[in-house]
Amino acid sequence: MNNYENYIKVVLDKDANIVKFESTLDGVEIDSKSVIGKNWFETFIDYSDLEKVMNVFNNLLNNQVEEWKTYKNDIKLPDGTHRFIDFTNEVIVVNDEKFISSFGIEHMYKKQSCS
Fold first, then answer.
1. Do residues 105 and 10 make contact, with C-beta atoms less than 8 angstroms apart?
2. Distance between CA atoms of 77 and 36, rounded to whole angstroms?
3. Which of 19, 22, 57, 104 is most buried, most CB within 10 Å of its CB?
4. DSSP label at 48?
5. pTM reported for the whole predicted model
6. Tens digit of each residue's pLDDT (9 = 90 or more) over 42-74
7. Cα torsion at 21, 25, 105, 18 (round to 10°)?
8. How many CB atoms lie within 10 A of CB 36?
9. What are the residue boundaries of the structural domains of the chain, listed by start?
């Protein structure tokens, strides 16, 4: 059972296609069936962030897991909004194929009160 209320969980194949997807981000409903099989970068990454996020993905596939075990980035949602997500990444191998499993918690900024 998951202890986080606002999360996104995604598993990507070596081509960054979404093979598993789950999201409970606050105020956004994403039907997992509508994104399975789609490319993560084309679906959820804004063009301005594409190069740096693809770099992280490629480095993970090339076994640089410790360096990129955690990564924070913006994602664009189907409703046009953006969320900043703190991702924890791992490489999993199934039948000699590498996949990237990412679990992201919505990054929340707390307002500080001024006295």
1. no
2. 15
3. 104
4. G
5. 0.86
6. 999 999 999 999 999 999 999 888 888 999 999
7. 20
8. 13
9. 7-106
User: Is-contact 71 107, C-beta < 8 A?
Assistant: no
**In 11-34, which positions are buried (b, 16+ CB within 10 angstroms) versus exposed (e)?**
bbbeebbbeebebebeeeebeeee
What token pair was written down for 28?
Answer: 């956004």
Low-confidence ranges of the chain (pLDDT < 50): 1, 109-115
What CATH homologous superfamily does 7-106 map to?
PAS domain (3.30.450.20)
- Who's near 74: CB < 8 A, 6+ residues apart? 46, 49, 82, 83, 84, 85
Both tokens of 72, joined, read: 């924070």
Please name which of 106, 58, 69 lies closest in space to residue 85, comparing C-alpha atoms: 106
One-letter identity of residue 82: H
* Residue indicated by tokens 């919505």: 106
